[in-house]
Sequence to fold (369 residues):
Amino acid sequence: MRTPPRRRWWGAARERTHRNVTKFTSLGNSCLRQAGEKRLVSTAAAGHDARRVKPIISVSHLTKTYTSGFQALKDVSLEIERGEIFALLGPNGAGKTTLINIICGIVNPTSGVVLADGHDIVHDYRAARAKIGLVPQELSTDAFESVWATVKFSRGLFGKPPNPQHLERVLRGLSLWEKKDSTILTLSGGMKRRVLIAKALAHEPEILFLDEPTAGVDVELRRDMWAMVRSLRAQGVTIILTTHYIEEAEQMADRIGVINQGQLILVEQKAALMKKLGSRQLTLQLRASLDRVPVELHSLKLELSDEGRCLVYTFDAQSEDTGVSDLLRRLSELHIDFKDLQTKQSSLEEIFVSLVSPASGLAQPGAQS
Fold:
């Protein structure tokens, strides 16, 4: 029996509708899945970015006032990025060691918040301290213990399982392996400082504080120490150092922080700091010496050196008009001839001295970069 045309048409239309609904439902589900996947990927990427840019140390509005009323730190805020070498510079008594000791849990803050890899140093102090290794300024070790026992004990303090291979690598890297069975009492001052570094590295910290690590050590140890610092940085360890040897900070650091009278007055990328605050000197070696700077040149920053045989001009290299061409033109007009010239960029030490001197006017905290 043949199906009537009307029913055949209705059945075909219903079948087409069903196929279309199925197709669009499938397409919709596919789009939803893709959108969901994109959201997941986007969320994961955002989380990855957040982890990437999250500072490993965050200091917020930190103050420290002792019972005597002395205020060692005044509203210090600082972020240190993961994997960088950060140099903290400042004169004696500026607050460098106090800041480090608070972050490491040795000194209690008066107010403020400090996070070490996301862990609050007060409320989550065990996890925070496990992330940190400290090489203190003072030599403080058990004089009658062997080097190996001291380093092994330091690792155990942080609940780390025994790892003789790691301890051997540390001791060999610091040229202490031959002294591992010696008592600390018998070691030289430089060797004792190496032991402090080995103790700080025993529990494999992600953050290493070096408080004046090369004070009183010989040139060979200093070079070994900085080779070790570069190696640790290559492994992803974040390093914060304080030093009075400013040329070390100039060679090693990625960023520079300057603290003075308990205030963080400046945090800057080293290269940017040298470029922004550095000045240049143009030294002209004169053919005939001068008794004094000519009156016609008093408007320029000139001074005589080498008993009048050199004329030194200080200028801002970042300025649109350095004044060099004007200086050379005036010298020509005054018939002052020179036989040689050289330029010199100011060093980090000169910049540091200018920042912490009372005449600089930089007594207020500066912005981070």
The chain has a mean pLDDT of 79.
